[in-house]
Amino acid sequence: MRAKLVMLAASLVLASCVSLLPKPGPDPDIFRLSEITLPDDLAASPVVMVELPRTPKALRNNRMAVIEGKQGIAYTTGARWAAAVPQIMAELLGDSMLATGRLNVVSPQEGVHPRYGLITEIRHFEIVYDQGPEAAPLGRVTIRAKLINRRSRTVIAQRHFDAQVRASENRLSAIAAAVDSAAHQDGQALGAWAADQLEAAEEAARR
At residue 19, does pLDDT exceed 50? Predict the structure, then answer.
C-alpha cells in the first residue's frame, strides 16, 4: 500500500527537542544500524552503482526524527544516529544487495562506470507515536527505488518499500532497534527485488 508522504511545511517542522522519549544521560546516545553478513564470494555481475539516497531536508542529518499525530516532525534530544540518514541507508542498501550473493555494488566515489544504477528516495525514516506519548512507538522506513540502465538512460523497474516495526517498549534502545529492523526489512526486500530484475535484464540482453 502506498505510504502517505508526511508534509514538511516550514510551519509544521519543529526544530525544538521533544520529551516523548525517556530522558537520556549526560552524553548523547549514538545508535548504528546493525551490520549485514556478506557472502565470502561476491558475484562479479551484474554490477550496480548505488547512489546516495535522496532525502527530505528534515532527514538529511543524524538526528532521530519523531512524529506524533500529524503535526510534523520534531527531534529527540541527546540521541543521534552514527551518521547522517542518507549515508547509513546507502551503506545498508548496498550491503543488502551484496548479501543476496547475486549482485556486486560500487559507489560513485570508486570511479567505476557500470551499466546499472540504483536511485532511491527515503520518504520516511522516523519514530511514530501513533498510540500516544506513553505507548511504544513504531519505527518506520519508507523507500522509493528505481533501477536504471545508466548507458541507455532508461528505467528498468521501480518499486515502493514500506516497513513498520513496533518497538518492544518506550525506551531509546528498543526504539532504535525498531527503526533498525524496519530499515533491514526494506533492505532485504529491495536486494531480492533488484537481483531478480537485473538478472532478467541481463538475460534479455543476451537474447
Answer: no
